[in-house]
Amino acid sequence: MYDSLAMEPRVQYTTTSDGVSIAWGEAGHGPALLNCGSTPFTHVQESSAVSGAFGALARSFRVITFDARGIGMSERAVADVSTSTLLMDAEAVIGAAKLDRFVVLTGMGLLALSPALQLATGLPERVTHLALNSPHQNMRELADTPYGRTGLALAEADWGVYVQTVFRVLVGLDAAGSTWVDRMARAAAGWVDPSVGLQYTRLREATDLGDLLARVRQPTLVLRSDPSLIPTRVCQRIAAKIPGAQFRQYADPTFELQAELIREFVGLPTPSPSPSLDAPTASGTAVILFTYIVSSTALTERMGDAAFRDALRAIDAGLRAAIRDAGGAAVDGKLLGDGVLATFPSAAQAIDGARQP
Prior knowledge:
This protein is an alpha/beta fold. The protein has helices at residues 46-50, 53-58, 83-96, 110-122, 146-157, 159-170, 179-188, 194-206, 210-213, 232-241, 257-266, 275-278, 296-303, 305-325, 347-355; strands at residues 10-15, 21-27, 32-36, 62-66, 102-106, 127-133, 220-226, 246-251, 287-292, 329-330, 339-344. The protein contains 15 helices and eleven strands.
């Protein structure tokens, strides 16, 4: 696993053409990659640290991420949001980061996909590739899904409950007991004020991107990480509407495999492991912590191999997040059977890591 904290973006600010202050950050080296995040649930610093995806990408790309207006570290008091303001926010960051040619990656949702498609069709000579996460054309395509049925109605009734539902239930990871999901849900609740969050939710309900899909000419990779609140058939439909697009589905709740798939798609080599990203600062002391799942064989028999592996990936991601928070580092880059091996620079930090919920 790549340590996302070691790749924490350096936060900077820029101003849009209509005078709104936008927070953006960058990390890593290589071809430029603009990340259009899952508006309205982004935070330049916090969201990049929760999941391993940012750090994994930053090992191969110069990753540029930002918060749209009203969200995260950007100017929070905004009067209005629209697909036009989403594009203005992205354009301001492109200018500030001095991006010439770049890959565009989207988070999940229509409000991540909208600026990406507008940039691809409006700047065809500068956007080299598109990588789209669980895309859909409009919310009507999801009318028969839990996400489509509960979205706007629940958001208007109780914003806090809506945020918890999206991250803990609808994403489909809560059953796995994922610490990663719990932390993301709690953090995301503070990334946008309810009034602005509702503006974005209503915008999402009114957005249809069908006219832009057929106009895309860049090589496009449509990704779906399982589990996902977007059905496979919907993502495949998007791939069919973009000329020459490829579709890849994979199982990884932390989205780290995303980086490998994008590197392969763009034609970059896999980076060499960097011990400095995973090893804690040397202090003369190394305390080892090993975790394992009790009765894992019986659990596998009861759940089935596939379900157990999915649950194990989610648990592994939560354990590694707790280890990082306590100042340690996982030794290996893969699952260690049904456990995780970690090192800490002190016994106190190891004990703190072991006590993490």
